[in-house]
Amino acid sequence: MACLSIKGLRSGYGNIEVLKGISIDVNAGEIVTLIGANGAGKTTLLMTICGSPRASSGEILFNDCNVVAKATHEIMGLGISHSPEGRRIFPHMTVLENLQLGSFTKHFSEKRLRHVYDLFPVLYERKQQRGGTLSGGEQQMLAIGRAFMARPQLLLLDEPSLGLAPLMVKRIFEAINEINEVHGTAILLVEQNALQALRLANRGYVLVNGKILLAGSGKELLTNKDIQKAYLEGA
Amino acid sequence: MSAGQKNRSDKNLGAHLRDAGLTALICLPLAFPMFGFQLVPGGEGGNVKTFGTSVELRFFWVIIALIVIFLGRLLISLLSSKAFSKQVVGAQPRSVNTQSMSSITPWLGPGILGVALLWPWFPFVDRWLVDLGILVLTYIMLGWGLNIVVGLAGLLDLGYVAFYAVGAYSYALIALNFDLTFWQCLPLAGIFAAMFGILLGFPVLRLRGDYLAIVTLGFGEIIRIVLLNWSDLTNGPDGLSGIPRPTFFGLPFKNDGSGTNFHSFFGLEYTSMHRIIFLYYLILVLALITNFVTERIRLLPVGRAWEALREDEIACRSLGINPRNTKLTAFAIGAMFAGFAGSFFATRQAFISPESFTFIESAIILAIVVLGGMGSQMGVVLAAIFLIGMTELFRELEQFRMLAFGAGMVAIMIWRPRGLLTKRKPSIRIAHTVDFK
Question: B304 — contact with chain A (CB < 8 Å)?
Fold first, then answer.
């Protein structure tokens, strides 16, 4: 049973087509990772799922409901949450306000807030601090926590390890795993850190120039010769 | 302490002199046309002769001006380098400074409110000072209204005066043509202004920053030019006169002996001060309503969405916030308060013309918001008192009084470059949040 099912998706910016017919599935409760080089279209795919930019053709089925024609704010209300690339927290607002804005489409739930604090205790310590004063890793935690506040069925994470120290990357990946295991949230993870992402994920897709080149379980892709050569060498 | 700071504090006298000399040199092309020429009617003493008048060249005054500027600049740079070296020696002078600021802040609001409530009754306050109070409060109200659009939602609006004009003309036209009272016209004027806010909002939904500023600037001019040229409705440049004065719950402030007037009802001697004081309290109440509503909306989801939109539009979209509705509500509510202020302006003046709604008004209101500290309600109050009060205090300088306005702006930007009050109040208090473990 697919939570998110994308078929023949084409999308891009103006005349430039970035995604040239993508088909992927994310089943309920699994972690799927999308790896690929810069400019392959990873971020564009996540953004297209969110409705900005709009898909030029193809289907995006979320719980068997086609969301291609819907506006971004409607899609986000259906149970998809997106933690955008580069974190994009609100720097002048407090940690707590950031988290509260995460539940904008739903009722603010203190229980949910407690879950976020359980995941990232440091956010509780810094709840009255302005978002911009957090370290990069803490900001990433805040971005994931904020996306998680909307009680999503599907969480889209765009490069959560970007620009973070290895120790912090490890903690972020642990938290992603916990969100998936404890709360059963399906996760579509876009990563350049292919090794870590594939270890964590149930399944993975390799995106090259707007097309899916390879698909398989995390283990299969980790042992694939081509992938090792292209993405895992030196990692 | 970085190397650059050390250099600055060690700057020797020669550098200060060079700096002052350069400043004087820059002022030369400014001072020459401003001080250098004087038209003398029919005079013979001038060097250049024209029809009936001659131009006198006043090199003496130019030299005086340059000397004043040279010495002034030298003094400022010497003093600031002294102050700076003191700061470096003393531990953390900056944080001490902000601490003293934040210890005043909680008392500032109630204190100013108290003074504002009692203002007309202070013994030294005459009619002129009450009028000044009305003017300052009008700008505070406009500043608070614009603060919603610029300070909270982060939409740079250079045409805010358009809504002020819409409010004033709506009030005047409705009151003149339909014989409604002030209190009936006021909400209508607010609704009209809000509608124009939405009208402006729709085409600029996709614009941000500079582009938005240009379009709003154009919008402000369009409204003014339409008012100027639509003579059938607005009476063009001659303006509308005879706008009904407000009444005290039906009691007019008149001394024509007919019917029940304010003074005869309360058994008072007639003075025109009654009306002035009533207008003062009217604008005070309107301004306080603006503040109250803004503070409440900040705590609602739409208020949070405004602030989030100011910070990051893409993040807002990813959280399911609808940017279109959020922006339109900000424009509409901001415009509505300008409409209220406009009605007040019309009833106070009893005469309005497009002259009152030029771009400089928008610029002054925006300056109040920016200099006060974007999004800070108290900052708007301080900046309005400072800028408007100062400009009016120097009224006797006539055409040079805008210099006082400029000097005020420069002073704020030097000493508090991010606005008078920059601290943002969080919209959630600690008490409201869950405790962990």
Answer: yes
For A42-197, strand residue ranges (E) read 55-62, 65-66, 80-83, 154-158, 186-191
> Within 13 Å, how many C-alpha atoms sit on residue B401's CB side?
13
Residue that has been written with the tokens 């030298």 in this structure: B74
Render pLDDT for B16-64 as a digit per residue (tens, 0 to 9): 888 888 988 888 888 887 777 877 776 555 455 556 677 778 888 888 8
Nearest to A101 by CA among B148, B326, B89: B326
Superfamily of domain A2-232: P-loop containing nucleotide triphosphate hydrolases (3.40.50.300)
Model confidence at B264, in pLDDT bands (50, 70, 90)?
Answer: confident
Nearest-CB residue to A77 (from B312, B320, B434) = B320
Distance (Å, rounded) from C-alpha B329 to C-alpha B194?
9
- List, for residues B334-375, the tens digit of each pLDDT value: 999 999 999 999 999 999 999 999 999 999 999 999 999 888
Taking the C-alpha atoms of residue A166 and residue A159, their distance in angstroms, rounded to an integer, is 14
For A73, the closest of B307, B308, B322 (CB atoms) is B322
Residue B150: closest CA among B224, B198, B216, B202: B216
Query: In this structure, are residues B372 and B383 in contact, taking their beta carbons and an 8 Å threshold?
Result: yes
pLDDT tens by residue, B211-263: 999 999 999 999 999 999 999 999 999 999 999 888 887 788 877 767 777 88
**Which residues in chain B touch residue A84, judged by CB atoms under 8 angstroms apart?**
314-315, 318
Averaged over A160-172, what is the pLDDT? 92
Amino acid identity at B233:
L
Q: Which residue of A has its CA nearest to B434?
A: A110
Closest by CA to B314, choosing from A82, A150, A183, is A82
Cβ of residue B423 closer than 8 Å to a chain A Cβ? no
Distance to chain B for A105, nearest Cα, Å: 6
- Looking at residue B104, its pLDDT comes to 67
Average pLDDT of A153-170? 93
| d(CA B428, nearest CA chain A) in Å | 7
Question: Distances from the Cα of A145 to the Cαs of A150, A188, A200, in angstroms?
Answer: 9, 15, 19
> Cβ(B348)–Cβ(B134) under 8 Å?
yes
Kindly indicate the confidence band of residue B304, based on its pLDDT and cuts at 50, 70 and 90.
very high
Instruction: Produce one character per residue of B26-44: b if its CB has 16 or more CB atoms within 10 Å, e if not.
Output: ebeeebbeebbeeeeeeee
Q: How many CB pairs under 8 A join A and B?
A: 88
Which one is predicted more confidently, A187 or B425?
A: A187
The ipTM of this complex is 0.90
- Residue B368 phi, psi (nearest 5): -60, -45
Domain ranges within chain B, ordered by starting residue: 8-86, 110-427
Q: Between chains, do B319 and A96 touch, taking CB under 8 Å as contact?
A: no
| B331/chain A closest Cα distance in angstroms | 20
Q: How many whole angstroms separate alpha carbon B222 and alpha carbon B228?
A: 10
